[in-house]
Specification:
Helices cover about 40% and strands about 10% of the residues. With about 400 residues, it is α+β, with helices and mostly antiparallel strands. Strands 1-2-3-4-5-7-6 form a seven-stranded mixed sheet, sandwiched between helices.
Length: about 400
């Protein structure tokens, strides 16, 4: 197989594509409860790898131990580990997973040398799990040195990266009913994305040589923040018209309901100014200016925009891809944590969300004075921090 695999157009995971293949004969009784899948990995026009998995459903497969044992190789070893002779689950397996029932066995992995990397392997396994398993599956991987299993060592490392637990025979098992594997899969994806942005290097290789002075708001990050601000602006202006002077009640839904409770009784005019903060920041991005919030309202708007931008990258990848397609990639792209840390002088406005600090917005309060708080009272949200950088008060509104 290794001779048939290409070396890849570049060691950039962004070029990898997965092709899932499975043939099922409609009337074949042998196919019930046990499916064999091949996930072929392509880099451009080259085939650079294949991941083979077996999907076993306990409730559909009769004596699943016998079925898997007949398949031989790793499936037979897994069957002996997870099942009793009568086909019931072993006590060790039932104790190891939250919902014993369905099993996804990662049988083998073949990858061209350019891609034979634990992070790439873990990402391939994670994609297979996402496509072929629900939250009631136990994902079983081979241990290093498993006889006759191609890529066993790489798959064992992938299992460790994906928070796999080990049974008595050292078979790594990922329980999809638990939160830790899901979080581990997200970490692996973030690492792979960072590697793509950073010329093939992992974050650990360069983060020590960089400091905050090297960070910048990249073109792609600015584009996604612009999407987020436009989105929030549209919602804000709709709510301005719908709410008028109506006070919000705890538990209400909507953008203005997501603001601190001290703002819930503000009127139409105040909400209109808040809606304009999204437009002002979006205008800064459009004009190529630095993104520097000039008042408390703009600080809150930027916090909301960073959160919405992160959601867009996660939930609307096609929209984001279209928005940044013509822009150069950078290793600092979509670093929302740095955006939150470095685009603000402080995070005082976020203290308004803490019910334990109720009253801190009052400039005469002892705590507010001791901490040097300014402009946290809602009526002060649109007072400029710096009069020399204040926006033109005659600039008007997007919706007059």
């Amino acid at each position: 197989m290794a001779e048939q695999l290409g070396v890849g157009v570049a060691a950039d995971p962004a070029v990898l594509e997965l092709e899932f293949g499975h043939v099922h004969r409609l009337l074949d009784p042998a196919a019930s409860g046990l499916q064999r899948w091949e996930v072929v990995v392509h880099a451009g026009t080259e085939r650079v790898g294949v991941l083979r998995v077996a999907r076993a459903m306990y409730w559909l497969g009769g004596n699943l131990r016998a079925r898997m044992a007949d398949e031989g190789s790793l499936l037979a070893a897994v069957a002996a580990e997870l099942f009793m002779l009568d086909g019931s689950f072993s006590a060790e397996f039932e104790e190891a997973v939250d919902i014993p029932g369905n099993i996804l066995v990662v049988e083998e992995l073949e990858l061209a040398a350019a891609w034979a990397d634990p992070v790439v392997a873990a990402s391939l396994v994670s994609s297979a799990v996402d496509r072929l398993a629900s939250n009631g599956f136990a994902v079983v991987l081979p241990r290093s040195g498993a006889v006759g299993v191609e890529g066993a060592a790489l798959l064992e490392e992938a299992g460790a990266l994906l928070a796999g637990e080990v049974l008595s025979s050292e078979l790594p098992i990922i329980d999809t009913a638990l939160a830790s594997p899901e979080e581990a899969a997200r970490r692996v994806r973030r690492l792979l994305e960072a590697r793509t942005r950073n010329g093939g290097r992992d974050v650990e290789e360069w983060e020590e040589e960089d400091d905050e002075e090297g960070w910048e708001l990249t073109a792609r990050t600015r584009a996604v923040l612009r999407l987020a601000l436009d989105d929030l602006s549209g919602v804000a202006w709709e709510e301005v018209a719908a709410l008028g002077d109506e006070a919000l009640k705890p538990g209400a839904a909507g953008l203005f309901a997501d603001l601190p409770r001290v703002t819930f009784h503000q009127n139409w005019s105040w909400r209109r100014q808040m809606a304009r903060t999204f437009d002002d920041l979006a205008g800064d991005l459009e004009a190529g200016r630095d993104l520097v919030p000039g008042c408390t309202g703009e600080e809150m708007a930027l916090h909301l925009a960073i959160s919405r931008a992160e959601q867009l990258v996660r939930d609307r990848p096609r929209l984001v891809a279209d928005a940044v397609a013509a822009l150069p990639a950078d290793r600092y792209d979509f670093d929302w944590e740095c955006c939150s840390d470095l685009l603000f002088e402080d995070h005082d406005v976020l203290m308004l969300f803490d019910a334990r600090l109720d009253g801190i917005e009052d400039p005469t309060a002892e705590a507010s004075q001791a901490l040097g708080m300014v402009n946290l009272a809602p009526l002060d949200w649109f007072t400029p921090f710096n009069s020399e950088r204040a926006r033109n008060p005659e600039r008007g509104f997007r919706h007059d």
